[in-house]
Write a structure and sequence with these properties.
By secondary structure, the protein is an alpha+beta fold. It has two domains: 103 residues; 249 residues, Carbonic Anhydrase II (Roll), CATH 3.10.200. Helix content is 29%, strand content 22%. Strands 2, 3, 5, 6, 7, 8, 10, 11, 12, 14, 15, 16 and 17 form a 13-stranded mixed β-sheet that branches. A two-stranded parallel sheet has the order 1-9. The protein has a two-stranded antiparallel sheet with strand order 4-13. β5 and β6 form a beta hairpin. The structure holds zinc ion. The site of zinc ion (ZN) has 5 residues, from β8.
Length: 371
């Protein structure tokens, strides 16, 4: 191959390669590598490997020629070609430098999934070595964390818009089994007993931008209808999302559980004004100073002390009450309230004065309640 042909081929292949690299389209499987410091540095100068290989080729060719006889005309031809090769290499280098410069100026295209916040995201895991608290079930859907896009309880990103904010939230608009509901006209039956198998566990507290959430260590279960669900987290709403015969409560705690197959069961504890609640106080004591920063409590929490003595409950099938409003959630709403002091309620209302989704249509769903 003639040297100029070789360099031309090199030039073309580099241009093709260079334009692929410079493309905004991410490669289907391989993530686009962010320009390293080394690449950044070489972008400003001449990429050494290009000119080096071109020069080497020219040098090798010239050496081979010198070995044989070389006429004056041949020598002139060779020198001309060497010069052309050098010029071409220079042009390639310039073009490459330009491509790299453009790449550096563009925003980095990330190939990983959109920012859906998963339970295994950093805010779900303990951050410091001192805390070995792991969420009881790391693959659970995190009620308040599933939305890929910003949402809120009022304004443009409020509940009426949740379904339009993302295709993933379609159920918020179109679902027929949404929560919360006004619980009324339930049929009174002998419901399966709801048993709580809770014990002292490590916990961490996070302000996720929608509520205060407490992530619980493993080992807490509820058992109902022959099925066992592990407690993952609980969080607060003000006022209560659910109503009983049209009446709302000051606040509600949602204890989110998940079974081995991924089915969710949420226990709702309605809150009324009353005595200070020691267990809630331990949550408030560990409130993080910053949003999305998890605080690992130094003490354990025994949630069995939180559950009211009366175990009667209402039950119906509903959804998560935050985007993406996933359905198929078993709701267990305890009939007996728990209490929090006015000061304790005030502390939450300073952070979240209103974080309740409006009441959804019952749509002929069956509600059962303990006799
Ligand atoms: Zn909730």
């Amino acid at each position: 191959m003639r040297r100029s042909d070789f360099v031309l081929a090199l030039f073309v292949s580099l241009l093709i390669g260079g334009s692929v690299l410079a493309s905004d389209e991410p490669a289907p499987s391989k993530p686009i590598k962010q320009a390293s410091a080394k690449e950044e540095a070489s972008a400003s100068g001449t990429p050494s490997f290009i000119s080096a290989s071109a020069k080497e080729e020219a040098k090798a060719a010239s050496k081979a020629l010198r070995g044989g006889r070389e006429s004056k005309a041949e020598k002139a031809e060779r020198l001309k070609e060497e010069q052309a090769a050098a010029e071409l290499a220079e042009k390639v280098a310039e073009k490459m430098a330009l491509i790299r410069k453009e790449r550096a100026a563009r925003p980095v295209v990330r190939t990983y999934a959109p920012p859906i916040r998963r339970p295994d995201s950093p805010d779900f895991k303990p951050k410091t070595a001192t805390s070995a608290i792991k969420p009881a079930n790391s693959s659970v859907t995190d009620e308040a964390h599933m939305a890929a896009v910003h949402w809120s309880y009022e304004g443009e990103a409020g509940p009426e818009s949740w379904g339009k904010l993302s295709p993933a939230n379609a159920k918020c608009d179109l679902g027929e089994r949404q929560s919360p509901i006004d619980i009324r006209d339930g049929i009174r039956v002998d419901l399966d007993p709801l048993s709580f198998d809770y014990k002292a566990s490590q916990f961490s507290v996070i302000d996720n931008g929608h509520t205060i959430q407490v992530n619980m260590g493993a080992g807490n279960y509820i058992n109902v209808s022959g099925r066992s669900y592990g407690l993952v987290q609980f969080h607060f709403h003000k006022p209560s999302e659910e109503r009983i015969n049209g009446r709302g409560s000051e606040m509600v705690l949602h204890l989110v559980h998940r079974d081995g197959s991924g089915k969710l069961a949420v226990v709702a504890l309605l809150v009324e004004r009353g005595k200070a609640n020691a267990l809630i106080q331990s949550v408030w004591n560990n409130l993080p100073l910053e949003k999305n920063e998890s605080v690992n409590a130094l003490s354990n929490m025994d949630l069995s002390q939180l559950i009211p003595k009366g175990r009667d409950y209402y039950t119906y099938m509903g959804s998560l009450t935050t985007p993406p409003c996933t359905e198929g959630v078993l709701w267990l709403v305890m009939k007996e309230n728990i209490e929090m002091s006015p000061e304790q309620i005030f502390i939450f209302s300073r952070l979240y004065p209103m974080n309740a989704r409006p009441i959804q249509k019952q749509a002929g769903r069956l509600i059962k309640e303990s006799n």
